[in-house]
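Possible regression after last week's pipeline update?

I re-ran a chain I had predicted before the update to compare outputs. Posting the input and the new output here so someone can diff against the archived version. Not blocking, just want to make sure nothing changed silently.
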Amino acid sequence: MRILVTGASGWIGSASVKELISAGHHVLGLARSDESAARIAGLGAEVVRGSLDDLASLRGAAALAEGVVHLGYKHDFSQMAAAAQTDRAAIDVFADALQGTGGPLLIASGTMGLAPGRVGTEQDMPNAGIHPRIANAAYTLGLADRGIRSMVVRFAPTVHGAGGDHGFVAVLARIAREKRISGYIDEGQNRWTAVNRLDAGKLVQLAIDKATPGSVLHAVAEEGVATRDIATALGQSLDVPVGSIPAERAQQHFDWLGMFFGIDAAASSARTRSLLGWEPTHGTLLEDIAAGHYPGN
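New output (post-update):
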């Protein structure tokens, strides 16, 4: 199958491209820069130039494909509404191209804030007020009524691994190194889900090959790692003290990450594993931290 992948040169996208190619798909990777194009070509995918802001380029790229893996997103917390609008416009382009074909359309979402205080499942639907992007996920699921094999993959907030993670844990490591303390908020008992990027890439491939229309899938290998344990592992790796940061000082200490690091965000992937036969096999979050993959540079 010819699969267009947005975000193909990124942290999750590059792992997904490799898995899709290994499974026999012909991957078209969307690239907005020469650097991205070179990275995509190096993965063995065909380069298609374009960007999420250029709907004409998206239409041209989608016309070449039989399915779409939409992982690209503008992660700008200062312009969340605008980013969600750009995302919705891209989804509409892909939906128009795939309508009535039965082809797959996979988009990315997250498990953060899914079911505070308990372990969230694929059946849980988050409050749309948490993030403007959530409405796009609900909209995508409804595209099954237009003859599209639509699906939403909710990724853990910590998609970790070796070789260039710039996400939440990398930010925590940088803050710990700069402030000479690896902190957690209050008691640090709130939990974050985690998944190795290589396992996440495998899940994307399995979803494209197996998921049914309107599926919600969880890219979660560990359903709940206590934030105190994350901070402790970072402290040991960076050789800095570990300590509690009071909730009222969280934003001052952690900057923008403070609004997220105190959330209890445990989630299960039991249904996803059953539906797809997905079994994570790569290192855990704490193992990757101990291996030195988060130097805090």
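Follow-up from reviewer: compared with the archived run. The first helix runs from residue 11 to 22. Marking as no regression found.
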